[in-house]
Write a structure and sequence with these properties.
single chain, 4-stranded antiparallel beta sheet, 5-stranded antiparallel beta sheet, 15 strands, 29% helix, globular, alpha+beta, 9 helices
């Protein structure tokens, strides 16, 4: 028997148990990590368990190393996809993102006096800093607006907003299970129990119906005496795509609560901020919409959408020539 194993057994812990038994919402005990390190020497799934536990403990550099080891030996496409996301989520992010609002006049007559609103992107310290580099939207309180005087029939207008996002992987752990001055009698365990009452459809290709679920959790949390905000941002996938995603946030502590991710991976659902999730804005001011459009003509039909892509420097230069409004302002 190794000295390490003897020490672990002295804590009432044996190889017959899963190291996950020692993992709670509040903390990742060091002895659980030690056991996971010991088990990982056999390779396979144990290496993935160790990497996940290191990530949950906020030891992202070590987690990335073990995720990479597991990825190099993985033969399961779904596991490999998940590992790629975990590897990217454990790395520092410094990227340009172009948010493009697209509005098409589907009607047979011109549309006039269209007002377009999007939420104001805001930084999330201490782990994220956002800069608005360029665009034609103007800041108005907690919103950004642009006015379209005329949009001809069957025409499309593209309204860009270019952001630079610098983000470190971050975790709020260890999490106190109770915040008596804030939550009162509500605990994080109570919140996890609320999440488990929500039916989340399985979706292997993305986060799922996140906005609807965020509203459900907000309603149920309010009934339990806890006010949660609904926030949104981007979900980075291994295919280098950016998907829009929504989740909840406790405004008093800044702790994110993601019911969709919680159902798939409870350790990441509360208090965890990897860089494959990019928070951008608060939906409180736009009723859950990335884009809101207002116009006076009742007979006009507009198609409205928003896209997010990584910014290519040459493309950014071209856009800056077309849209010379340069904000260069930290948020």
């Amino acid at each position: 028997m190794s000295i390490l194993l003897a020490v672990l057994l002295s804590y009432g812990y044996s190889p017959g148990d899963s190291s996950w038994n020692l993992v709670t919402l509040g903390n990742i005990p060091e002895r659980a990590i030690l056991f996971a390190e010991l088990a990982s020497k056999d390779g396979g799934r144990f290496t993935v368990d160790l990497a996940a536990m290191l990530e949950m403990a906020g030891r992202f550099t070590e987690a990335e190393r073990y995720y990479s080891l597991a990825f190099n030996s993985s033969t399961d496409p779904l596991l490999s996809e998940w590992l790629e996301n975990r590897i990217s989520g454990s790395r520092t992010l410094d990227t340009l993102v172009i948010l493009s609002t697209l509005i098409t006049n589907m009607s047979n007559e011109d549309a006039i006096n269209i007002s377009v609103e999007i939420p104001l992107p805001v930084s999330h310290p201490p782990y994220q800093q956002i800069e608005r580099l360029a665009g034609i939207f103007e800041t108005d309180g907690n919103l950004m607006r642009f006015e379209i005087g005329l949009l001809p029939s069957q025409a499309t207008v593209v309204l860009p907003l270019i952001l630079r996002i610098r983000q470190q992987p971050y975790s709020f752990r260890p999490l106190p299970l109770y915040y008596p001055d804030i939550y009162g009698s509500v605990s994080l365990q109570d919140i996890s129990s609320l999440i488990r009452t929500i039916q989340v459809p399985e979706n292997e290709t993305g986060p799922g119906p996140c906005l609807e679920i965020a509203y459900v959790l907000q309603e149920r949390a309010t009934g339990a005496g806890l006010d949660l905000q609904i926030v949104g941002g981007l979900f980075r996938t291994d295919s280098n795509s950016l998907l829009f995603h929504a989740w909840n946030l406790d405004p008093e502590t800044g702790i994110p609560i993601d019911a969709v991710l919680f159902q798939a991976d409870s350790l990441r659902g509360i208090g965890h901020c990897p860089t494959d999730i990019i928070p951008l804005w608060n939906f409180e001011y736009t009723d859950g919409h990335e884009v809101s459009v207002f116009y006076p003509q009742q007979n006009i039909q507009l198609d409205v959408s928003m896209q997010a892509i990584y910014g290519d420097p040459d493309l950014i230069i071209g856009l800056l020539k077309l849209f010379p409004i340069c904000i260069l302002k930290e948020i």
